[in-house]
Amino acid sequence: MSSTSAIIVTELNHWFGQGEARKQAIFDVNLKIKTGSLTVLMGPSGSGKTTVLTLMGCLRDIQNGQVELLGYKLFDSSQHDKDSIRRRLGFIFQAHNLHASLSATENVLMGLQVHGAGRIAQQTKAAVHILDLLGLGDRTDYLPENLSGGQKQRVAIARALVANPQIVFADEPTAALDKESGISVVKMLKTLGSSRGTTTVMVTHDNRILDMADRIIVLEDGRVVSDTLKTE
Fold it and tell me: Residue 40: which residues within 8 A CB-CB, separation 6 or more?
């Protein structure tokens, strides 16, 4: 694992609402996340973990403080720079957001085509390969309506990983998966971290995967209250 930081968060604050309804949700969060690591964000509902994830992932504008992502400072950055950095990221959400009219392979291909690189035959081969790694080798031509909830989530995970992103942001990625499938996905993310330097930040309530995390950060009421770095 590299000693460099893929993500640096400095004095991050965030508010929701306007006027008298304005309420602070994130308070003075400071983090450095190592390249190639698997970091888990935990905390009760409403603790701010998903807000921190979306701020780090360039999905929400930064109001106060700074996030440095792969060397890019996000606060006050241009839309062009934000679009460029997003192409180096992968996102996995609890809602799979698959296109109903596209097959599993075609849905995964969307994760490659935003990059505009590679021939369609090569892209299709890559899509089929990662679906096979996730246990869906016999479901590549299935439409979402013919897949189970867990299978749909694995297609969404394949879509996020197929382009070999440098950072993966995952919000409850194993919630719809059985124990074996959930552990398999996290092991894949760990392997990507050690072999390719892929950094993963994951929001989860899934205690089954905590043993595989390199670091566990707990938030409560918008503040980091615990930060545990696992030792090898």
Answer: 202, 203, 204, 209, 210, 213, 215, 216, 217
Given this model, what pLDDT does residue 116 score?
Answer: 59
Computed from CA positions of residues 119, 121, 123, 125, in that sequence, does the dihedral angle turn out positive or negative? negative
User: What average pLDDT does the structure give for the chain?
Assistant: 91
Which residue range(s) make up the domain with 125? 35-60+82-229
Measure Cα distances from 77 to 35, 62, 67, 107, 193 in Å: 22, 10, 11, 30, 27
What is the number of residues in the chain? 232
Domain count, the chain: 1
Task: Report the CATH number that the domain containing residue 172 is assigned in CATH.
Answer: 3.40.50.300
Query: How far, in Å, CA of 64 to CA of 197, rounded?
Result: 29
Which three-class secondary structure state does DSSP give residue 184? helix
Provide the CA 61 distance to its chain's centre, in angstroms.
17
The DSSP bridge pattern shows strands 89-92 and 167-171 to be parallel
The proportion of the chain whose per-residue pLDDT surpasses 90, expressed as a percent, equals 66
Question: The tokens 């930060």 sit on which residue?
Answer: 227
Residue with tokens 């124990």: 179
Which of 28, 30, 33, 44 lies closest to 3, judged by CA? 33
